[in-house]
């Protein structure tokens, strides 16, 4: 992070700042979505001990990324990695 701050401080062109901000936002959004999708209930990381992780989801648990006008009792959490 020191390199980016040093680059922005020593840069004489202020038009570089929006590019860095937009790229930083896009990269952090991509990392967030990647982590979120890797922890989804239908992703199986351990095929020997838990080959069907989607069967551990109980009725009324929210597993969707975005749900409109739906009431859920609880949110699904991964217990086994």
Plain-language structure description:
By secondary structure, the protein is mostly helical. It has 2 domains: 39 residues; 32 residues, no CATH class. It is 40% helix and 5% strand. The longest helix is centred in the middle third of the chain and has 23 residues. The relative contact order is 0.10. The mean pLDDT is 77.
The helix-and-strand class reads: mainly alpha
Helix content: 25-40%
Helix segment tally: 2
Q: What order do the helices and strands follow? A: HHEE
Strand content: under 5%
Number of domains: 2
Order of strands in the sheet with the most strands?
1-2
Radius of gyration: 20 Å
Key terms:
single chain, 81 residues, mainly alpha, 2 domains, two-stranded parallel sheet, 2 strands, elongated
Summarize the structure.
This protein has 81 residues and is mostly helical. It is built from two helices and two strands.
What topology does this entry show?
Elements: H1 2-10, H2 16-38, E1 61-62, E2 74-75
């Amino acid at each position: 992070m020191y390199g980016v701050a040093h680059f922005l401080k020593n840069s004489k062109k202020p038009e570089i700042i929006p590019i860095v901000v937009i790229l930083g936002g896009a990269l952090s959004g991509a990392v967030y979505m990647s982590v979120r999708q890797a922890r989804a209930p239908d992703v199986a990381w351990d095929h020997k001990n838990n080959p069907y992780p989607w069967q551990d989801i109980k009725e009324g648990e929210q597993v969707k990324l975005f749900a409109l006008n739906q009431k859920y009792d609880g949110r699904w959490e991964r217990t086994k990695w």
